[in-house]
Design a protein that fits this description.
The complex is a heterodimer of chains A (about 450) and B (about 250). Chain A is α/β, with parallel strands linked by helices and about 450 residues long. Chain A folds into three domains: about 1-40 and about 310-375, no CATH class; about 45-155 and about 190-285, Rossmann fold, CATH 3.40.50.10420; about 390-455, no CATH class. Chain A has helices spanning about 5-15, 15-40, 45-60, 60-75, 85-100, 110-115, 120-125, 135-140, 160-170, 180-195, 220-225, 250-260, 290-295, 310-315, 315-320, 330-340, 360, 370-380, 390-400, 405-420, 425, 445-455, and strands spanning about 80-85, 105, 130, 200, 205, 210-215, 230-235, 240, 265-270, 280-285. In chain A, the strands form two sheets. Chain A has a six-stranded parallel sheet with strand order 1-10-7-4-2-3, with helices on both faces. In chain A, helix 2 (about 15-40) packs antiparallel against helix 12. Chain A starts with 5 loop residues before the first helix and ends with a helix. With about 250 residues, chain B is of the alpha/beta class. Chain B has two domains: about 1-115, Rossmann fold (3-Layer(aba) Sandwich); about 130-245, 3-Layer(aba) Sandwich (Rossmann fold), CATH 3.40.50. Helices cover about 50% and strands about 10% of the residues of chain B. Chain B has 14 helices and eight strands. Chain B has helices spanning about 10-15, 15-30, 45-50, 55-65, 80-85, 90, 100-105, 110-115, 135-140, 155-160, 185-190, 190-205, 215-230, 240-245, and strands at about 1-5, 30-35, 70-75, 105, 130, 170, 210-215, 235-240. Chain B has a four-stranded parallel sheet, sandwiched between helices. In chain B, strands 6-5-7-8 form a four-stranded parallel sheet. The two termini of chain B are about 20 Å apart. The chains are: A alpha/beta (about 450), B alpha/beta (about 250). The interface between A and B is large, with 78 and 74 residues.
């Protein structure tokens, strides 16, 4: 099978039982922190309503707000660039850097640049890129993508990071004290900040009314990266817009609480135009978002503010790991976004959910994630991408169930035949239910039989 | 006497007839005449949840034909009721009788609490019981407030179990995490599904439950399959069985 097979990747993750449980518990701990933090806000559910409303409104007038944002940002001295897709985005960033002879770039967290594969693009053109978020730096040193959008190295244990730092940063062998390792990373990154010719950040929110962009981090690395080098490049998807500054009061209260259970991120930096003698470039990227906006079902997912709450609560994500999704945004939201980009390659993702609906209930912008997953399943089937045997099985079952007598006959045969089969045959390789589970009992009588007897009928 | 249409999900009819009977006796004991239309088969959820809407559509139409006209339709399953209430509009929107059917289809506990206004059930059930909240009952039918939402707490299922004499409802570490059944998910994603199920069982075991109960026999079938394979001492019972046994019905 080409593309991602979530069931196979997940089975490999689950096979290491201790690690899978550790991963599950680490993320469940974040989910519980989110529960506590959201309880401290009296009108949490009303706040979610407000956020959903603002997002729906903004997306319905995105063109107008983009123009307003461009006007206001330009008036403040920023240069606004529009990029149709990942290739244009990468070319714009590279153009800015190469024109100014910049060979060293420091980056704070940006899922968009991951989406556009900016790092390898720049590295191939002789630019040294340093991710400065600690988790991002760890996965960059391992030549891995992030496994979670907020907690990029959540799949790693501190001992593994100790070993990595020993090899790459020269820390003591066997050292795994988080404080010691963080200090080593801090010293290593300090040098990179000082040497950098430009700093690149993501954008959490862009305010149309003011032309400002807001970046939220916990490590202050975005602030270091935009304060030391003279050039700041901020990259954002079109969906990051909010109309007014006051809308931030809604989103900033939701974001960190949903993401990590903090009341607010440690650093929330508002950039309004370039700093003195500096440059601010804002690269606004579409990369498939307009097409998604045109789809009346899947447009709702564009409201996503990338808090990661759906991942932390997802019982499947917690037990299958971010890499099992094979897409830059994993978990429930990724399982909608990925097949939206390439339905064939990511066709197993919408099925990597028990449709439990917990994601829908934690989503701070009220995306009905589990209903969108279901809609995406329909889309996969409509496009003929469900394996033929599954499609045939469903067709057959659907057909049998249209006739009461046929359904009863088929069920009668099954209830008689299954107990008669030798266990070795019944629990052979084809029986995926029975690998770890017993089959249900096969009673002689059905409810209908008992009901008839209850009413004294034969 | 109030007459309702008894909707017995296909897998309960075939595999767990005693759950259907417990439901029937419970309803009768509370003054309801439960009529079981024998032409019913399946609500179509397995097809619909697999994305095969075209295969579910005729079953939705059949369901409407079979159950149209009942003042209430009651089923001992949250997920099958959610199928009718939340997902049938894709197939039946605008069809005569559909709106009434959707509004009058109830999960058993919800029917007892919201329609029959059963405040408490007089009965005795001297066991340590873990309540497994099935996801569709919880998050699609809102039978309880759930751990994710910041709304005033309520729990319609627990409110029926709690007053039983001698019952001890154990406290779980994760009160409403999914058991991993998820219909075809249980075989498509066998590894994750079984890990989820084992984790749920472990939570109930740690809390000291002898019995895991719930409103959806499908979740319980999955958990029971794992319990029996691993020869654990817990057992599963549908809420209807617990209530009917407690009442001596």
């Amino acid at each position: 099978m080409t593309g991602v097979s979530h069931p196979e990747a997940a089975a490999r993750f689950v096979a290491d039982d201790a690690r899978a449980h550790w991963h599950d518990q680490a993320l469940w701990w974040v989910r519980k922190k989110r529960d506590v933090a959201s309880s401290a806000v009296p009108d949490w559910e009303a706040l979610r309503d407000a956020a959903a409303g603002i997002k729906a409104h903004t997306l319905s007038r995105i063109g107008d707000y983009l123009e307003e944002f461009e006007r206001n940002a330009t008036a403040r001295g920023a240069k606004v660039w529009f990029a149709r897709d990942a290739a244009e985005h990468n070319a714009v960033v590279h153009g800015i850097l190469s024109e100014r002879g910049v060979t060293r770039l420091v980056k704070s967290k940006s899922m968009l640049t991951e989406e556009c594969h900016l790092n390898p693009y720049l590295e191939a053109r002789g630019i040294e890129v340093t991710d400065t978020d600690l988790g991002e730096r760890i996965v960059q040193l391992r030549h891995e993508p992030p496994s979670h959008i907020v907690l990029p190295a959540i799949h790693l244990k501190k001992e593994e990071i100790g070993e990595l730092f020993h090899q790459r940063l020269g820390t003591e062998k066997g050292a795994s004290d988080p404080k010691y390792l963080t200090e080593a990373a801090r010293q290593h990154l300090r040098r990179r900040f000082l040497e950098a010719g430009a700093g690149l950040t993501g954008v959490n929110f862009a305010v149309a009314e003011t032309g400002g962009v807001v970046v939220c981090t916990n490590e202050g690395n975005a602030d270091m990266g935009t304060t030391l080098p003279p050039i700041h490049i901020a990259c954002m998807g079109v969906e990051k817009l909010v109309p007014r500054r006051q809308d931030l009061a809604v989103f900033l209260r939701l974001l960190a609480r949903s993401a990590t259970g903090q009341p607010v991120t440690t650093y929330t930096t508002h950039f309004h135009g370039p700093r003195r003698a500096g440059e601010l470039h804002i690269v606004v990227v579409d990369n498939g978002r307009s097409a998604q906006l045109g789809d009346k079902v899947f447009r709702r997912s564009l409201a996503c503010i990338r808090c990661g709450a759906c991942m932390n609560t997802c019982p499947v994500f917690r037990r299958s790991g971010g890499y099992s999704y094979g897409f830059i945004v994993p978990g429930p939201i990724g399982s909608i976004l990925a097949p939206g980009r390439d339905a064939s390659a990511y066709r197993t993702l919408p099925f990597a959910s028990s449709l439990c609906g917990s994601c829908t209930d934690v989503c701070p912008v009220r995306i009905d994630l589990h209903h969108e997953l279901l809609a995406m399943r329909q889309e996969i089937v409509r496009r003929g991408m469900l394996p033929a045997w599954k499609r045939a099985g469903m067709k057959l079952a659907g057909w049998v169930l249209r006739f009461g007598w046929l359904y009863r006959l088929a069920a009668w045969i099954a209830r008689r035949a299954i107990p008669a089969l030798p266990r070795g045959l019944l629990y052979s390789r084809w029986n995926s239910w029975g690998r770890q589970r017993e089959l249900p009992p096969m009673p002689r009588e059905t409810f209908r039989d008992l009901y008839r007897r209850h009413h004294g009928r034969p | 006497m109030l007459t309702i249409g008894l909707f017995i999900p296909c897998y309960i009819e075939q595999l767990y007839p005693q759950v259907g009977m417990a439901t029937l006796r419970l309803l009768e004991r509370h003054g309801v005449r439960a009529e079981y239309p024998e032409q019913q088969t399946c609500c179509g959820q397995p097809m619909a949840n697999s994305g095969c809407s075209a295969d579910a559509a005729p079953l939705a139409a059949r369901f409407l034909r079979v159950f149209r006209g009942y003042e209430y339709v009651v089923a001992p399953s949250g997920s099958c009721v959610s199928m009718v209430r939340n997902h049938y509009d894709a197939f039946l929107e605008g069809k005569p009788g559909f709106d009434e059917l959707r509004r009058s289809t109830y999960e058993l506990c919800e029917f007892l609490v919201d329609v029959l206004k059963v405040g408490r059930i007089d009965g005795r059930f001297p066991h340590k019981v873990g309540l497994h909240h099935s996801c569709h009952g919880l998050r699609e039918l809102r039978l309880a407030s759930g751990s994710e939402r910041r709304v005033p707490g309520f729990d319609k299922v627990r409110s029926l179990l709690q007053p039983l004499e001698g019952i001890e409802l154990v406290e779980l570490q994760r009160p409403d995490e999914c058991c991993g059944f998820g219909g075809t998910f249980s075989v498509n994603e066998e590894a994750v599904s079984c890990m989820m199920g084992k984790d749920r069982i472990a939570d109930h075991e740690r809390a000291g439950a002898e019995i895991i109960t719930g409103i959806d026999m499908s979740c319980l079938m999955h958990l029971d399959g794992l319990i029996r394979r691993e020869r654990r001492s817990l057992r599963v019972m549908h809420v209807a069985e617990v209530l009917a046994q407690a009442e001596g019905a």
